[in-house]
Amino acid sequence: MELQFLGGARTVTGSCFYLNTGKLKILVECGAFQGSSEIEKLNYEDFPFEASEIDYLFLTHAHYDHIGRTPLLVKRGFKGKIFCTTPTKELARIIFFDSARLQKEDRARSNRKQNKGGWEGSEYEKDEPLFTEEDVENTLKLFETYPYSESVTLNEDLEFRLRDAGHILGSSMVELWVKNENGRARKFVFSGDIGQLGQRIIRDPEYIREADYVCMEATYGNRLHKNKDETMVEFLAILKEAKRTQANVIIPTFAIERTQELIYELNLFYGKKIIKGMPVYLDSPMAIEATKVFRKFPEFYDEDATRLIEKGDDPFDFEEFEAIQNVEASKRLVSAKGAVIMAGSGMCTGGRVVHHLANNIENPNNHIIFAGYQVRGTLGRRIVDKEPIVQIKGKDYESRAQIHTLGGFSAHGDERDLRYWLRNFGKTPRKVFVCHADEDVGIAFSEKIQMELGLETKVPNYKELVKLD
Ligand SMILES: [Zn+2]
Ligand SMILES: [Zn+2]
Question: Which residues contact 52 (CB under 8 A, 6 or more apart)?
């Protein structure tokens, strides 16, 4: 058997594992690379296999870095089945269409630029878009969804089961039972992204007792998050301070999960009247769509969220909350004062948040809150790293607003959570592959679990191919 690491290897984005058992060719995830234009070029590379020969694709959850190249795989000939949970499918549909639309717009824009003779983009932007809406339609036809915990036997060489990863709505870990060349059963566990314990709305990650080979994420393998209560106190203090000075709070948010968790939290604050007289705007059509999917699947909620609904509270709405759909209304937010504005994209690489940052970043009274991981090379990361001058839409801005990172909102487990998850394997896995982390973080985490848990580990390189028996 061979396992090849086609993304998420010594980097956090582009997750993609290619498992060739000799009889079956399986992909787990088909994510897109995100970050600098250098990194994003990798999205256009050829797959090192014939897409039409892949039998199955498993998607752990609907984040772009885990599913983003799926329609491209289909465009290049993949006709097999795609397995995931129902919420993952519905959220993936939103992400695919949004991405196809953005690519079409980028393309139109770069064509206009080229026509004017003012081409400034990098080489690859001149290429075809990665995929179109038609490719997305074809992709959606291949999905087959399953609930958590159901064992599915596909044939005598493959059985699988999805388990709750507690990361975003519908997120799963994949357990795969396959046969090696000698007909021996081997079990793989692909962790996907592992959620933080005690996250809002969704349940905690499940623990898995057995595996021969584990491919796991380690995004925060070198860090401990502040605890949830401290984070909420900090969040509340920022809101109160902004209210006092009539300043704005800009929150770049990921459309899926982070947005809904923030609204959930704000609904509690506003419901108890801890904060009032401070409007909250969700300026993201994509996040509004994603929230509809959240409403559709209450059976995926944890106990607290379920209890809230039973009491008749709508966790995704409150009096001073307003969802902004159209562009005109979004533009009017330029004159907002003493408001909370949540907008995408989560890493400030595009979307409406870019305008809000340009409007607000130079005022030292304003606040910018980061509640999610910022990939290296993105505008979000530059702001978090406190670069004094940042470029927004080609113009320089002094970064003078107050910058906060609320790690307690993270949808990823921290170092302790990840180690705890590993400790729960009853039988020591033959090997643990540490993926989905910046290189230094992955290496540090790998060394730590080698020493403390006595595990055999590897931090694979991009495109590295490992032979397994
Ligand atoms: Zn994720
Ligand atoms: Zn991820």
Answer: 76, 77, 78, 79
Position 251 pLDDT exceeds 50? yes
Q: How far is the CA of 244 from the centre of ligand 2 (A)?
A: 37
> 88 C-alpha vs ligand 2 centroid, how far in Å?
14
Given a contact cutoff of 8 angstroms between Cβ atoms, the answer to whether 366 and 331 are in contact is no
Q: Where are the beta strands (DSSP E) in 316-375?
A: 321-323, 340-343, 367-370
Task: Find the 165 Cα to ligand 2 centroid distance in Å.
Answer: 12
Any idea which ligand is nearest the CA of 33? 2
Q: Do domains 2-223+412-467 and 228-409 have the same CATH topology?
A: no
Fold exhibited by the domain 228-409: Rossmann fold (3.40.50)
In the prediction, which pLDDT does 373 show? 85
Q: Where are the alpha helices (DSSP H) in 335-414?
A: 353-360, 379-384
The number of the ligand nearest the C-alpha atom of 217 reads: 2
Q: Where are the domains of the chain?
A: 2-223+412-467, 228-409
Ligand 2 center from residue 403 Cα (angstroms): 24
CATH 2.60.40.420 correct for 2-223+412-467:
no
Nearest listed ligand to the Cα of residue 63: 1
Number of alpha carbons in the 13 Å side-chain half-sphere of residue 295: 12
Q: State which H helix or E strand residue 433 sits in.
A: strand 431-435
Condensed to tens digits (0 to 9), the pLDDT of residues 90-137 reads 999 999 999 999 888 887 777 665 554 443 444 444 567 999 999 999
Whole-structure pTM value: 0.92
The whole-chain average pLDDT of the chain stands at 94
Residues with CB under 5 A from ligand 1 (ion): 63, 193
Nearest-10 crossing angle of helices 415-423, 439-453: 40
List pLDDT tens digits, range 132-152: 999 999 999 999 999 999 999
Supply 282's token pair.
């969700």
Range of lowest pLDDT (59-63, 285-289, 371-375): 371-375
Listed residue (165, 129, 167) closest to 149, CA to CA? 165
- Please give the sequence-ordered ranges of beta strands (E in DSSP) within 271-425, or none if there are none: 280-282, 321-323, 340-343, 367-370, 389-392, 395-398, 402-405
